[in-house]
Fold this protein.
Amino acid sequence: MDADALARYLRAQATEFLRALRLHRENGAGAHAVDGSVDAARALRRAARRISGSLHTFQALLDGDWAEDIRPELAWLSGTLAMEHAYASRLERLLQALHRLSGVSVFPDLPPGVPAQQAAGTERGALTVGAAKAGALLDRQLTLARTRAHSTALQALGSSRFHAVADKVAVLASDVPLATGAAGADLRPLAAAAEERLTDAVAALPLVTAGSPYNAEALVHGLSADPAPHPQDAPWHQVRLLLRLHRYAREAVTGGDAPVGVRLLAAGEALDRHRDAAEAAAAAAQAARTPRIAPATAYALGVLHADQRHEVEAARYAFQHCWRKEAVGTP
């Protein structure tokens, strides 16, 4: 596959971007946006990610200044449009987890002389009472964040910055600025380099630890007062990004016709769950830092945080399982 295939792929994604933009405008983007507008925004993000990812992987075949100019703008747009959906999904995830946890209790070893039934009732009662207040607190915080993200997205879609991006994508739909001498260049070495970067990043992950069920590695530093994200999550998030770039590179090489392999799909789903659980745990921890909350509320949020970190651990296990299973079976 040569640079002409890349040009066709980029033109197709630019056309999808413009089609989604038109649908978004037709469906409206007000506070009570219909499902069509939500779907259009999702399609906008999808096309923007693919264009940006392809510009990153195949930059050597494109006009360098042009690619460096538009790529961060597409990343800004995709990130801005994703926030409202992310907050809504995070709230739904946390409320479902609270509902599940408030009906199930895991009890520590009992102190001497404390009847099991009494300890069970106390533990369950603390979580059930705190769960309602924790849910209300999370609902207030994440709904406010979602509302702000919605306003930010509306402002972004009406800004001169967005219109400049849309104009550049409109030009891309008809004219892809290839680098001098890029005509006829093979895409496969650059796509292979993207796959190699993914493979190297996966090799650096602690897959042996992740392959041990209930290893509790994801809970390390769980009681830290530092509000910064878990540093151990960053390499996994990076692998998720590199996996996407690898998929987009394959789409460009094959023209988007080749089906995505089961291994890549399963790995991508596991890493998506990892990201969602890590961000949900961070939201629970942030809510627990709210001043003057009741002890029962703080307790419920602590249980919720631990639950989501266990989900992080489960996602890592699922990723290493599907990734290594395929690798072992490969002749």
